C-alpha cells in the first residue's frame, strides 16, 4: 500500500484564465459610485479584466463633489503607456478627462486604443462641473477617433449645438457626431422627458433605438460610467456594436432599478446587479425544489387546480420569465397524491412567471408565487392568512392591455392594495376558471401559506 500523500508533497497545476483586458481612462470617485471605481466594477462584472489610467482624484460622495485634483499630465501618460505596453488591451473607455490637455493626450494615443468608447463626461449627476468650459471643443478630435461616443442629451447639445429634447433630435445629434468622425454615436435618453427612456444609436448604416420604461428614482449616480464600461467590455468580447449596446443598456436598466441605497444623497446604480442575479439562480431553483418536495409530502391535492399547480421562484433581480424557476409541467393530482411532472428549471413557467413579475413591478421583494384552485371553501380559508387578500375581475381589464388576465390582475391587485397582498383571487369563475395566487418573499413563507390554507380546508371537511 502506498503511503498517504502529505499536503507538503503535492503541487497543484495552475489553471489561468484569459479575460479580455479593458482600459478605463477616467477620474477617481471616492464615493465609489462613478468614475474609475464604477468602471472597474462593471468591467469585471461583464467578464473583462479592468485596468486604469486615473486622470483626476475627486473628493465626492452621494451629495456632490467637494474637491478635485488633476494629476500631472506626464503621470496620466505614464499610466496609459504602462498598461498598453504590457497588456493586450482589447477595448478602452474614457470618462472624466477634465481638461483640454488630457483630451489631447488621449487623442494622441488613440492608435493604441482599440474599440475606443468615448463617454464625454462634462457634468456630474449632482450638477457639479467636471470639464473646463474651454475644453469642450477639444472633444472633436477625440470623437473622430471613437468607435462609439456616448453623450447624454445635455452633452450632445454641447457637442453639436442642438437641443436634444426628443428621439428625433437625438437622431439628428447622433448624425452630427458621426459626421465629426465617430464610427457611431449613442445618444442617451435618460435626460429627455417621457415615460420611456429612448437611447438612439446612429451609425453610417442606419439608426437603432432602444426603449426602456423609466424607473422612478434619483439614484442614477454612475449610470453613464457603467453603460460605457459595459459597452467597451462587450466589444472586447467580440460582440458586434448593436449587440454590445443592447446588452449594456439592459444591464444598466436593471442597475438603475435595483440601485444601491447608500449615503445621505441619492444612491448609486448597482454595477454588479447581473452578477449577483446570476449567482442567485441555483439557490432560487433549490428553494423551489424544497417547496415542491414539502407540498408533495403534505399532499395538498385539495388545492391543486385541474390544470395543475405551478410553484415559481424569481431571482432577486428577475425581469424576464427566464429568470423565474418553476416546475416543468406543473404539479398534478394522481391516485397517489400530488406529483411533479418533471423537474424544476428556469423558463418552465409562462403564466405564473409573468404574474409574479407583474407583482414585482410594484414590490420587488416578492420572489415566490403559487397558483391554487378557487372554490368557496378555499376562498373562505384565505381569512386565516396573516396579510391582505386582494382580488381582480378579468372583465375589468382595459382593451389596450395585451397581458393575459392573470398577469394584469395580479399586477393590478398589488398596485392598488394597501400593502402587498399575500393572496390574489382571480374571479374568472369558480372551479376550473378561477384561481388564487399566493405571493411571498421567501419559499418558506409561501409553503407556510399553502399549508395554512390546506389545513383549514381539511379541517372543514
Keywords:
alpha/beta; UDP-N-acetylmuramoyl-L-alanine:D-glutamate ligase; L-fuculose-1-phosphate Aldolase; 7-stranded mixed β-sheet; 6-stranded mixed β-sheet; 14 helices
Q: How many strands in all? A: 18
* Tertiary shape: globular
Strand line-up in the sheet with most strands: 14-11-10-15-18-17-16
Helical fraction: 25-40%
N- and C-termini, Cα separation: 67 Å
Radius of gyration equals 27 Å
CATH architecture descriptor of the largest domain: 3-Layer(aba) Sandwich
Which secondary-structure class do the elements indicate?
Answer: alpha/beta
Number of helical regions: 14
Question: In the residues, how many domains can be counted?
Answer: 2
Question: At the fourth CATH level, what is the homologous superfamily of the largest domain?
Answer: Ribokinase
Q: Characterize the biggest β-sheet.
A: 7 strands, mixed
Average pLDDT number? 91
CATH class of the largest domain: Alpha Beta
- Outline the low-pLDDT stretches: none
How much strand?
A: 15-25%
User: Might you state the CATH topology name of the largest domain?
Assistant: UDP-N-acetylmuramoyl-L-alanine:D-glutamate ligase
GO molecular function: hydroxymethylpyrimidine kinase activity; phosphomethylpyrimidine kinase activity
Keywords: Kinase, Transferase
Protein name: Bifunctional hydroxymethylpyrimidine kinase/phosphomethylpyrimidine kinase
Domain Thiamine-phosphate synthase ThiN: 288-451
Amino acid at each position: 500500500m502506498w503511503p498517504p500523500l502529505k499536503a507538503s508533497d503535492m503541487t497543484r497545476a495552475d489553471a489561468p484564465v484569459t479575460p479580455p483586458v479593458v482600459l478605463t481612462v477616467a477620474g477617481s470617485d471616492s464615493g465609489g459610485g462613478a468614475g474609475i471605481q464604477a468602471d472597474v466594477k462593471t468591467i469585471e462584472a461583464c467578464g473583462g479584466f479592468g485596468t486604469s489610467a486615473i486622470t483626476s482624484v475627486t473628493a465626492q460622495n452621494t451629495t456632490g463633489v467637494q474637491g478635485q485634483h488633476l494629476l500631472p499630465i506626464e503621470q496620466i501618460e505614464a499610466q496609459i503607456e504602462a498598461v498598453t505596453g504590457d497588456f493586450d488591451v482589447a477595448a478602452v473607455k474614457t470618462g472624466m478627462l477634465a481638461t483640454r490637455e488630457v483630451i489631447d493626450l488621449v487623442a494622441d494615443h488613440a492608435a493604441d486604443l482599440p474599440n475606443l468608447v468615448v463617454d464625454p463626461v462634462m457634468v456630474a449627476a449632482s450638477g457639479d462641473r467636471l470639464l473646463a468650459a474651454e475644453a469642450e471643443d477639444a472633444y472633436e478630435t477625440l470623437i473622430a477617433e471613437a468607435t462609439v461616443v456616448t453623450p447624454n442629451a445635455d452633452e450632445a447639445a454641447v457637442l453639436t449645438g442642438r437641443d436634444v429634447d426628443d428621439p428625433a433630435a437625438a437622431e439628428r445629434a447622433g448624425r452630427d457626431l458621426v459626421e465629426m468622425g465617430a464610427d457611431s454615436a449613442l445618444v442617451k435618453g435618460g435626460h429627455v422627458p417621457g415615460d420611456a427612456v429612448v437611447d438612439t444609436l446612429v451609425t453610417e448604416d442606419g439608426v437603432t433605438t432602444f426603449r426602456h420604461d423609466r424607473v422612478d428614482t434619483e439614484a442614477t449616480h454612475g449610470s453613464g460610467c457603467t453603460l460605457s464600461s459595459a459597452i467597451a467590455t462587450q466589444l472586447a468580447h467580440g460582440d458586434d456594436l448593436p449587440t454590445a449596446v443592447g446588452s449594456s443598456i439592459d444591464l444598466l436598466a436593471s442597475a438603475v432599478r435595483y440601485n444601491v441605497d447608500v449615503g445621505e444623497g441619492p444612491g448609486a446604480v448597482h454595477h454588479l446587479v447581473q452578477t449577483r442575479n446570476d449567482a442567485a439562480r441555483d439557490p432560487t431553483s433549490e428553494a423551489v425544489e424544497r417547496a415542491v418536495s414539502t407540498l408533495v409530502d403534505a399532499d395538498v391535492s385539495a388545492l391543486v387546480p385541474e390544470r395543475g399547480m405551478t410553484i415559481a421562484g424569481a431571482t432577486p433581480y428577475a425581469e424576464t420569465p427566464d429568470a423565474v424557476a418553476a416546475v416543468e409541467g406543473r404539479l398534478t393530482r394522481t391516485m397517489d397524491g400530488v406529483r411533479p411532472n418533471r423537474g424544476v428549471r428556469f423558463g418552465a413557467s409562462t403564466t405564473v412567471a409573468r404574474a409574479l413579475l407583474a407583482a414585482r413591478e410594484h414590490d420587488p421583494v416578492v420572489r415566490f408565487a403559487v397558483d391554487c384552485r378557487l372554490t368557496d371553501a378555499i376562498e373562505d380559508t384565505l381569512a386565516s392568512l396573516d396579510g391582505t387578500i386582494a382580488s381582480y375581475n378579468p372583465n375589468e381589464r382595459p382593451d389596450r392591455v395585451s397581458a393575459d388576465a392573470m398577469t394584469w390582475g395580479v399586477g393590478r391587485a398589488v398596485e392598488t392594495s394597501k400593502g402587498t397582498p399575500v393572496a390574489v383571487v382571480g374571479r374568472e369563475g369558480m372551479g376550473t376558471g378561477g384561481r388564487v395566487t399566493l405571493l411571498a418573499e421567501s419559499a418558506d413563507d409561501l409553503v407556510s401559506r399553502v399549508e395554512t390554507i390546506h389545513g383549514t380546508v381539511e379541517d372543514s371537511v
